[in-house]
Amino acid sequence: CNCNPEGATNLVCDQSTGRCPCRTRIRGKKCDLCPLGHFNFPRCKACNCNTAGSHSFMCNELTGECPCKDKIAGRQCDRCLWGFFNFPDCWWCDCDPLTTKDEICDNTGSCVCKDNFQGHRCQKCMTGYYGFPLCITCNCNVQGSESQSCDQASGKCTCKKNVIGWKCDMCAKDLVSFPACTKCNCDPGGTVVLPGQSKVGSASVLGQSCMCKMNVQGTLCDRCRFGYFNFSAENPSGCTTCGCSTRGTMAAMRGC
């Protein structure tokens, strides 16, 4: 008879058909099959195939794999295939392989972005980066810019008041002491006058300090250099050389 001892009530089969007497819900001529909708004989488990995702409530009697519909995956056919979302309709994620991780998306269809990218399809740079798809860091000056974000196309940062520069890292014209950027108050008589400026107007600024005439010194360009005298706004060099004789004065005392 070869009745399965775990599935049959006894090992004696029908003399004419050879069918064994099975336990409740056990199937098969030899009593070696689980009930319909179950697998893993003799420790039978329910298939639990998802009705929305599978073609049938029955599964493979050995593995328990349910017969899934198109674009459906999982032993119980209860999720979308890799790269699809919105079970059980399962739409294509359509994620850009250059900007997304493994071209997958979440349950809303939003792609899982690589570093420095954002957006529903990872189609733009994260805040603080620009130049999609390269997405280069903005590097906006923390002290001089309104935020760490910049123009997505050009990379130009948004500067605070009185601050200029692509990265907002310098003071506006005629201002000094970044990032405070206050009026320079350079002495007009001792500073160089650039084209477009008047002697009466504010003095020229070079970097973070006043731009002194050749023979002038000081933060505000308001005094003569050693060895010069007669500070004058009319003098192109700012001051006149002392002209002390090298033969009659000590080397350290040639000022006047």
From TrEMBL:
The keyword Disulfide bond applies. PROSITE patterns: EGF_LAM_1 (PS01248), EGF_LAM_2 (PS50027). It comes from the Eukaryota. Pfam families: EGF_laminin. Its main location: secreted. InterPro entries: Laminin/Netrin_ECM (IPR050440), LE_dom (IPR002049). Keywords: Basement membrane, Disulfide bond, Extracellular matrix, Glycoprotein, Laminin EGF-like domain, Repeat, Secreted, Signal. Disulfide bonds join 1-13, 3-20, 22-31, 47-59, 49-66, 68-77, 93-105, 113-122, 212-221. Residues 1-46, 47-92, 93-142, 184-241 form the Laminin EGF-like domain. One of its GO terms (cellular component) is basement membrane. The keyword Ligase does not apply. Transmembrane segments: none annotated. It is found in: Secreted, Extracellular space, Extracellular matrix, Basement membrane. PANTHER family: LAMININ SUBUNIT ALPHA 5, NETRIN/LAMININ-RELATED. This is Laminin EGF-like domain-containing protein.
